[in-house]
Description:
The complex is a heterodimer.
Chain A: H1 2-11, E1 16-17, H2 20-23, E2 40-42, H3 47-60, E3 64-67, E4 84-87, E5 94-98, E6 103-106, H4 112-119, E7 124-125, H5 138-144, H6 151-154, H7 157-160, E8 161-167, E9 173-177, H8 188-192, E10 201-208, E11 210-211, E12 215-223, H9 226-238, E13 245-250, H10 251-261, E14 270-278, H11 280-296, E15 301-304, H12 308-319, H13 321-324, E16 331-334, E17 337-338, H14 344-357, E18 361-367, E19 372-379, H15 386-403, H16 422-425, H17 428-441, H18 470-473
Parallel strand pairs in A: 2-4, 3-4
Antiparallel strand pairs in A: 1-2, 5-6, 6-10, 7-11, 8-9, 8-10, 12-14, 12-15, 13-14, 13-18, 16-19, 17-19, 18-19
Helix pairs in contact in A: 1-3, 9-11, 10-12, 14-15
Chain B: E1 2-4, H1 9-22, E2 26-29, E3 46-49, E4 56-60, E5 65-69, H2 74-82, E6 86-87, H3 100-106, H4 113-116, H5 119-122, E7 123-129, E8 135-139, H6 151-155, E9 164-171, E10 173-174, E11 178-185, H7 189-201, E12 208-213, E13 219-226, H8 228-239, E14 245-247, E15 259-262, H9 268-272, E16 277-282, E17 286-291, H10 294-303, E18 307-310, H11 323-326, H12 331-342
Parallel strand pairs in B: 1-3, 2-3
Antiparallel strand pairs in B: 4-5, 5-9, 6-10, 7-8, 7-9, 11-13, 11-14, 12-13, 12-16, 15-17, 15-18, 16-17
Amino acid sequence: MAFLDELRNILGPDGLISTSEEVRTYECDGLTNFRVKPIAVVLPTSTEQVQAVLRICHRERIPFVARGSGTGLSGGALPVTGGIVISLAKMNRILEVDLPNQRVVVEPGVINLNVTVRVSPDGYFYAPDPSSQSVCSIGGNVAENAGGAHCLKYGFTTTHVLGMDVVLPDGTLAHFGSKTLDAPGYDLAGVFVGSEGTLGVATKVTLRIVKKPECVQTLLAAFDTTNQAGAAVSDIIKAGMLPAAIEMMDNLAIQAAEAAVHANYPNCGGLLLVELDGPVAEVDTLIAQVSAICRENGAGEVRVAQTEEERAVVWKGRKAAFAAVGRISPNYIVQDGVIPRTALPKILSEMDKLASEWGLRVANVFHAGDGNLHPLVLYDRRIEGQEHAAERLAERILELCIEMGGSITGEHGVGEEKKHMMGKMFAEPDLATMQKLRCAFDPLSLANPTKVFPRPRLCGETPGEYKPHPLETAGIAERF
Amino acid sequence: MRIVEPQSGEEAAEILRCANEDGAAVIPRGGGTKSDWGNPPARTDVMLSTARLNRVTEHAWADLTVTVEAGCTIAELQRTLAQHGQRLAVDPLWPDKATVGGVLSANDSGVLRLRYGGLRDLVIGVTLALADGTLAQSGGKVVKNVAGYDLSKLVTGAFGTLGVIISATFRLHPLPKHTQTVTATVPDLGAMQQLLSKILDAQLVPAAVQVRVGSGAPHIDVLFEGTEEGINFQVDRLRGMTTLVESDNEVWARLDASAKISVLPAKIAETLDGLEGYAVVEATGIGWLQAGRLPELREKIERVGGSLVMMRPFPGMDAWGNTAQNNGGGGLALMRSIKKHFDPRGILNPGVFVGGI
């Protein structure tokens, strides 16, 4: 194909992958049950190369999907049929470290943890810490508005991105935001973060870094039930505290984590992990209060990690929890839903009921402070009908989240996996309004076009009466 | 100019739909405290007041969220939240009159931003009435939510040019148990910048830090919130760096300024060098000026990537300056494209925003 030669000219022989064998590596992301082979994969090394690639895509009407490390769990980086993948893995330089202003400027392929590693000797860290932080990229974090356990206190990726360079789907370069706050104009950085690759490709990102707290203490509290643990969380919040993280695991999740990394968790029905950070005197006072609250709510064992190593092990168990479930079940679905935190007992008992009705097990890991659930639906593919039942249960959990006033995703994104749920969470006018934004960025629907929204809609199309779009009439585009 | 006061989001949307059909310019209005901000509107046919959209719809205190209609004043909202020991962690200008919708549209967060983030970080959902009469929601009622585009951020600071905010949902924080403000007075700007950098680089967690610079010696105010033990500990730590006096809350009274600046935190002294007037600058780099020679100052600030935005009309000066243009690339063109998709006939606050939007 002529455009492949053109791409090769721009990127050099190392920058283009187009054999059927080689592109297979890119046929899915962390959500492996969806697979599509792209026409080609390009690996640009500069903003100019990204621009050149997108200009060709624009001219040829070729859809593209940007990809960081491919750790996403909703199929956001799944290739689209007939499209190319733009891997930002080679754009992995930290361009500037500005400690006096607490800013770091990076390329999108930089690994999340490497930002912290770079500024750590000076006493700083990059706050968003998704469980995959040792492998996931900043570009992917930007696309998904990645969270993590500590976003309860420190905020999500969007709070820590001040500005970026974005190549728009027609190849134009645009600067969003600034190194200073409140740059005059619309908050384009604010809408771009979390747009799941549907608005363009970020090629440079200005991040805010945070001074490391003087003291960090992590408390483990073992309860008989998740309801007791949930009541303790409510009391912590009621007492006016904002811990750095509040995590909860149920018995199945604890067993899995123990089997995988020997985190030395107490074997109990509901485990709370509360982390407080700040000045020593403040943390000492609050950790005593949290201990008391946990005991009042029936915690049998309350333990504070005494050393940095102990803390690390405690977190390793939590962060390994998803993968660890592989130790106790041949197959499982990782779900990501949000409820108002107070609805926790209600949704847990509903999930219990459904799971036993359908003969399945559900392990639960929560960011309990902000109501973000990660139910892990366990099943065995070899047992006929179980996979389907597990998928139904995972979806039913999201419906419950919506019914309880929550969301279908707290941090993993909509991507390919949940686009059919968007119509349940939002009304048609809401989706049509989001579409206006998309059309302003990407009138030809080339950027990750089949994701996030339940039905791709061409720009200029109004909902309701069927009117052929000019592109459609001209045979350039077709409806799905 | 006609004044309309819708009682519901549906009514507001219907008013917009009619105005749009007629091509009538609509000026959204909350408490009217910031009508001088931005450029003067090119046309004014209908004033859409949110005065009757003033209820706190749902304070889910156990979930630390609130949903409130756009016309509710900040003071009224804070009174309601305080009944459960909570607050929206912002301190905008004129809270008795300023409304939720106005404060969001003008993006006036205040000094607490250092610790709690700005409005853009605290708003988790909005209901908008668009020019074509659509009533749409974005975000939701939970703190953590990445489903769909975050239109709450798009309309925060958009000066009502994309739609009228009907209601908003916010993440809340507990009211602090204890607070204390301390002030250091330093001989000159150089010493001020040095001490400020030292405070920000220390492992202290102040809720707010600001510098006050006028004709005399500059002051640095630091606000601590939290437990008594934590506050005393941090004040002691700060005493090790400089001489302090205790101050009362008065020092945080917002300045009725003629311009807002945004600069890098490490460039505050350099920016204020030679200032003719008075300035209060937050540690985030956002500052408020009552000063002369603003055109020269704007040029100086923009040269190093900051911005100076007018809050009062000034002959011959665009309210927004040239940052968006200077930034180059397709940023401003994209903003125009967004405006065109949301308000194709340009009826919402025409000409008020950046680049004539």
